[in-house]
Amino acid sequence: MSRISQPPSFWHRYSRPILGAALFALAIHDVFGTHGFLAMRRTQKEMEQIRGNIEQLDKENTDLTGQVSSLKTDPKTIERIAREEMGLARPGEKIFKLPAPSDNSSAAQDPH
User: I want to staple 12 with a disulfide (CB 3.0 to 4.6 A). Which of 8, 27, 101, 110 is the partner?
Assistant: First the structure.
C-alpha cells in the first residue's frame, strides 16, 4: 500500500523564514531602538561631557574658595583690590588716572 504524502504544514514550511525575520527585527531594535546600542553610545558621550563640566566647575570652585580665603585674611590682596578696583589710596598718596587708549589714535598717526 502506498502512502500519499501530505504537504508540509504551515509551521514546518515557514518556521525558518519567520524565525529569521524575528531575529532580524530584534537585531534592528537592539541597534536603533530607544534603549539600543546607538542610544547607549549617545548617553555615554553625554555623561563624559557632564563629567568634564563637573571637573571644570570643581576646579573653579576650588579657585574661588582660595580667592575668598585670601580676601578674608591676606592684607596684600585686600589692598590690591582697594587700589585697583575701588581707586583708593593711602593718606598722602596721589592717584593719576590716564585715559584708556582709543582705536582712533592709531588712525590719527597714520599719514595716509
Answer: 8
State which amino acid sits at residue 75. Answer: P
The pTM for the full model equals 0.51
Q: What is the pLDDT of residue 10?
A: 85
- Give the separation between CA 12 and CA 110, rounded to whole angstroms: 94
Task: Give the integer Cα–Cα distance in Å for 40 and 66.
Answer: 39
Residue 98: C-alpha distances to residues 33, 95, 102 (Å): 65, 10, 12
Sequence ranges of the domains in the chain: 18-88
The CA-atom distances, in angstroms, between 7 and each of 4, 11, 16, 29 are 10, 12, 17, 35
| CA 110 – CA 102 distance, rounded (Å) | 14
Determine the pLDDT at residue 106: 54
Stretches where the chain sits below pLDDT 50 are none
Comparing C-alpha atoms, which of 69, 65, 47 is closest to residue 57? 65
| Burial class of 10 by CB neighbour count within 10 A (0 to 12, 13 to 18, 19+) | exposed
